[in-house]
Design brief:
By secondary structure, this protein is an all-alpha fold. The protein folds into two domains: 46 residues, Homeodomain-like (Arc Repressor Mutant, subunit A, Orthogonal Bundle); 132 residues, Tetracycline Repressor, domain 2, CATH 1.10.357. Helix 6 packs parallel to helix 10. It starts with a helix and ends with a helix. The N terminus is likely disordered.
């Protein structure tokens, strides 16, 4: 066998990252437009301009592709560095930055559409909800939990259960507005309303967990 042919057939050949990115972009779009059930690997391959074999080579199956699409979307809106505690900077400003990014994510049209898809298909595809939870909310909450633990260790917050505090923070942020969007009762919010909601949530959180004298 020629040396070049042997090299191309080798099991360790790196995958084409451009194709991987194209597959993910296509998957994110189709999962939003069609939902999970009606998005086939064939459709993703066609939209990405690759073969179905290439899609399976990169992601294995549709569940893995869905989970990666959710994870990637969260990372785009809430990159890892946003959860790096700047212990010399003002804590309030850091919380507001995290809050803005999270609220923008969960109230985006794409996120609302995917959330509706998960809820609508959870009976027919029971593991879909778990896939979504682990790829999205659980990862975000875990990162914020670590942020809070760093702030507690630095004496900036007094929290006995940082995991619970993390879930409280995000639930407060979602609030009524997110529920109304899920039900189709609220299309958009004015920037002033968003700013006031985020400021009030951060203020409440800081009052609850400020260091005791």
């Amino acid at each position: 066998m020629p040396r070049t042919a042997a090299k191309s057939a080798g099991p360790g050949r790196p995958k084409d990252q451009n194709k991987r990115a194209a597959i993910l972009d296509a998957a994110k779009r189709l999962f939003v437009e069609r939902g999970y059930t009606d998005t086939s690997m064939d459709a993703v391959a066609a939209a990405a301009g690759v073969s179905k074999l290439t899609v399976y080579s990169h992601f294995g199956d549709k569940d893995a592709l869905f989970a990666e699409a959710v994870r990637r979307k969260c990372e785009e809106q809430l990159p890892a560095q946003i959860f790096s505690a700047n212990l010399k900077g003002p804590l309030r400003a850091q919380l507001v930055e995290i809050a803005r990014a999270f609220f923008a994510l969960v109230t985006s049209d794409d996120a609302v559409a995917v959330h509706r898809t998960v809820v609508a298909n959870v009976r027919n595809a029971p593991k879909l909800g778990q896939l979504f939870w682990e790829a999205g909310p659980a990862r975000v909450q875990g990162a914020f939990d670590a942020f809070l633990r760093d702030e507690v260790a630095a004496g900036n917050l007094d929290i006995a259960d940082t995991r619970r505090a993390a879930t409280q923070f995000f639930c407060l942020l979602k609030g009524e507005s997110h529920a109304r969007m899920e039900f189709g009762c609220c299309a958009t919010l004015k920037q002033r309303e968003i700013d006031e909601h985020i400021a009030a949530t951060v203020e409440l959180f800081l009052r609850a967990y400020a260091p005791r004298d």
